[in-house]
Amino acid sequence: MNAPRRSSGSAALAGAAAAALGIGVSEAIAGILAGATSLVDAVGQEVIDLQPPGAKDIVVQLFGTNDKLVLEIVVVLAALALGALFGLLATRRWGLGPAGFAAFGAVAFVAALGQPQAVPAIVAVEVAAATGVAIWALTSLLDRLPTRSAEPAIPDPARRSFLLRTTAVGIGALAAGAFGRTTIASGSTAPTPTTPLPPPAEVVPPLAAGADLAPSTPGLTPIVVPNDQFYRIDTALLSPSVDTATWELRIHGLVERETTLTWDQLTSLPMFEQYCTIVCVSNEVGGYLVGNAKWTGVRLREVLDIAGPTTSATQLVGRSVDGWTAGMPMGWVRHPDREPMIAVQMNDEPLPRIHGYPARLIVPGLYGYVSATKWLTELELTTWESFDAYWVPLGWAKEAPILTQSRIDTPRYNIAAGRVPIAGVAWAPDRGISKVEVGIDGEWHDADLSTPISDTTWVQWVVPWDATAGQHRLSVRATDGWGLLQEETPTRPAPDGARGWHTVTIDVR
User: Which helix (H) or strand (E) segment is 315 a member of?
Assistant: First the structure.
């Protein structure tokens, strides 16, 4: 009889199960222990920060707002694959398995230190616990590792024991991971501010009649997008949790007086409301990475004036608590026809945590990647030439005014013959929209527009259509408030926004 041989497949399964349990334990600890952090998100954040130029455009094109979920899944699968490798190595030389898990834990520890809320000592305990559990699980499973034999297979108690233990480890990993993820997700809403916000000194009037055509037009995006439906694009896998009791806003650089404001000092300044449409530069033609909301906050220029910017300051850099930066021209911020703000409310509610609680920048007319800093903690005044913000070295334009664009919301799929609305939205903050035209099989028709809220917001548009059976090609183009028609020639979003007329092909039955 040949000597028994260890099963490579079972060894790999043991390693993957051990890795899964370690991940699950780390997620559970991150969910319940202040100062700990998701190691999955920490490693994923490093992947984001080390991405090559052009990667953002490709990833958002493929996965849209699911890009973060996809990255987390990839990180977990990579960890399970490494665990399988460590299991195989352990059958050849025992110490290689634990050493592999320890090395991976060290990498996760270093990555976790970059998370804004991570406390090194707490993270060290978290990593040690996760690594220890993974090594214990690997040892326990390899003790029951089945063998292979050249003889015909017979019922093997060791194999049953191994499978039972592996199943138990897998269930434990799923339970711990689900608990951790649920607990982490439960903190995704904004905390309650330590003191109630004073009412704004300037409020917007109620929406005029005809400002929102969505109630009478099925499939049309509402003029004001609810918070839970608003798009989210940022580089943070784990949204920072910021306490207003300790939050501060530092204003420094090329200023006469470096200034630090507490939350109470910021919110004691006169507050105002405005509707403003914001757009992600990664938005494809016809995409949904755009939204309109009512924002409440303080005037950015008033905050800057407290510190006294010098005449040499030509760039304003917003910095998040996680270190992310956006840079914009001071000329844009200072222009009297615009009202950039530090927003603290969104649609009459405290900023959701994923949208920047407790404070973020809203700068009308600029793409978010050069302006809309979430989780704001610093405003630095500098020169245009001396600093490039986060996305500029990755190939995106340093100047990024929002392009004129329009989108067909309905119809976008096959429909029945008869009268139907062709409807959508068009935007050109901060120029406004003066005209929208819809092409039906090459023939252009003027659309009816919703009553504009302001030049900083999008408008809805509608064209009634008597749809006849067959295939039809629908297109839309907008003219902004300056009389400029949006560009027809298609381009990719990089480096300064997508161009082109949104076109769909519809089969009418």
Answer: strand 315-320
The enclosing H or E element of 343 equals: strand 341-346
Neighbours of 2 (CB within 10 A): 8
Q: Hey, CA dihedral for 367, 368, 372, 377, is it positive or negative?
A: negative
Contacts of 141 by beta carbon, 8 Å cutoff, 6+ apart: 14, 17, 18, 87, 162, 165, 166, 169
Least confident of 115-124, 181-190, 480-489: 181-190
Amino acid at 159: R
Do 407 and 426 form a contact (C-beta atoms < 8 A)? yes
Considering the entire predicted model, what is its pTM?
A: 0.82
Amino acid at 149: S
Other C-beta atoms lying within 10 Å of the C-beta of residue 296: 25
**pLDDT classification of 148: cutoffs 50, 70, 90:** low
Q: To which residue do tokens 């007329």 refer?
A: 501
DSSP assignment of 385-454 = TT---TTGGGT--S--BPPPEEEEEE--S-B-SEEEEEEEEEE-TTT-EEEEEEEETTEEEEPEEPPPS-
Helices 96-112 + 67-92 axis angle, to 10: 150
Helix 120-143 / helix 96-112 crossing angle, nearest 10 deg: 160
Phi (first) and psi of residue 386, to 5 degrees:
-90, -10
Question: Both tokens of residue 33?
Answer: 């222990």
Compute the distance between CA of residue 3 and CA of residue 428 in angstroms, rounded to an integer.
75
C-alpha span between 240 and 122 (Å, rounded): 17
